[in-house]
Specification:
Elements lengths: L6 E4 L2 E4 H15 L3 H9 L3 H12 L9 E6 L5 H9 L4 E7 L2 H11 L8 E5 L12 E7 L8 H11 E13 L10 E5 L1
Helix pairs in contact: 3-4
Bound molecules: S-adenosylmethionine.
């Protein structure tokens, strides 16, 4: 009897589910040092507009009676974290979690020159199994990251586990739209 293997997408390719993470990791280890520049070149800078829309949606508070903690999952070089912290004028505390140590290294280095460098921490973690306590974050953001995670249902389960009651989950990701003539994927914000 032949057993069918579970497969998933890696770009245009169909790959075995258990192979995807290593393929994804190889890509980001390879581009980490020029990721931010590539993002600007490949999107013509428009990724900044999409990310700003995500932050506007999150609308992090600028003050409060207790810390406002955000987990920026697949946070890479910290672009989203910097925007959240700046939007909160230094009030939000953001944990940038990513499976890739090179992306985090670049992010941590960049963060030294941010306006509020002490508000972010960089932690190596797999979205499918998080090293954080239950109900420990006010918001969970993930930008252009969910498509890279092989078992999305596990990542969403973990997001639910670490979010406080009433916490926000915001996903920025490419999506296909049913608009005639518009066949390219466009970014969308999912809440
Ligand atoms: C396209 S980058 C997005 C980085 C950042 N969020 C941004 O918008 O600039 C995708 C990120 O997902 C990370 N990633 C892939 N699989 C992951 C996983 N299972 N758990 C955590 N991070 C993952 C990669 O290492 C990479 O840094």
């Amino acid at each position: 009897m032949t057993q069918s293997r579970q497969t998933t997408h890696f770009g245009e390719q169909e790959v075995a589910l258990e192979d995807k993470q290593a393929l994804v990791n190889a890509v980001f280890h390879g581009v980490a040092d020029r990721y931010d520049l590539m993002n600007d070149l490949m999107s013509g800078g428009i990724h900044r507009v999409w990310k700003d829309a995500m932050i506007a949606d999150l609308a992090p508070p600028k003050q409060g009676t207790r810390p406002y903690r955000v987990l920026d999952m697949a946070g890479g070089t910290g672009d989203i974290a910097e925007r959240i912290i700046n939007a909160s004028v230094g009030y939000a505390e953001v944990v940038v979690a990513d499976i890739n140590s090179d992306m985090l290294r670049v992010g941590a280095e960049r963060a030294k020159s941010w306006r509020f460098p002490t508000q972010a921490s960089f932690i190596e973690a797999n979205a499918e199994k998080l090293p954080f306590e239950d109900k420990s974050f006010d918001a969970y953001t993930i930008a252009f990251g969910i498509r890279n995670v092989p078992r999305i249902e596990l990542a969403l389960g973990e997001a639910h586990r670490v979010l406080k009651r009433g916490g926000r989950l915001i996903v920025l990701e490419f999506s296909q739209v049913d608009v005639p003539g518009l066949d390219e994927p466009v970014p969308r914000i999912f809440r």
